[in-house]
Amino acid sequence: MSDANIKSVSISGISLDELVVSLPMPAHVKDYPSGKYILTNKENLKVYHFTNIAEMLGRNIHDLDEFMKPRWGEGFADSIDLLDETVAKTGNPFFSENRIFVAIDGILRIQNMTKIPVYSYDRSKKVIAIFTQSHDKTENIDLLTLFNTYIQFYKRQGIISEYFCKFLKIESFFRFLPTCA
Q: What sections of the chain are H helices per DSSP?
């Protein structure tokens, strides 16, 4: 399906393009089955430190994995492909609570993620795209729980302090980062 056709899909009179762009949280639409990003919004660009929508469109999760793998680890891109494939094959939305996502700067985001199949207009009712949005809940998690999440995710002590202080925006206050001791 062409990008022009997917942009014309509407939900209650609002085009999918307008919906994605207007959301105050990261959102995107990927073509199915190619997995290429065909719609995204500014909040999603911030996650990867992109400044222009054109930097993301036409890529797939494995293209992002080329520079995100040091943060995401092995298998993350494949797990996203599998989720998209499951949503497309079953036709059922997917919802995940408290999912840990690592942004390009190493800061952990605790988020709820929703994936919804987008169907063609014709009678085939075939899935042509996957809409994804995530709601960042990190700011609403108490700091002790969040710190423990950093400890579990980052096994090396120096990295825990570095990224947790970065999240709190206090790293510049220290000559040497605090330890977990």
A: 3-8, 16-22, 42-47, 61-72, 76-90, 143-153, 157-168
> Token pair for residue 116?
């919804």
Q: Torsion angle, CA of 1/126/37/22, rounded to 10 degrees?
A: 100
Phi, psi of 7 (to 5 degrees): -70, -25
Q: Token match 């977990």: residue?
A: 180
Residue 7 pLDDT: 53
pLDDT digits (tens, 9 = 90+) for 140-176: 999 999 999 999 999 876 788 899 999 999 988 988 8
From the centroid of its chain, how far is CA 76?
11
* Residue in this structure with the two tokens 């992109």, named with its chain if needed: 50
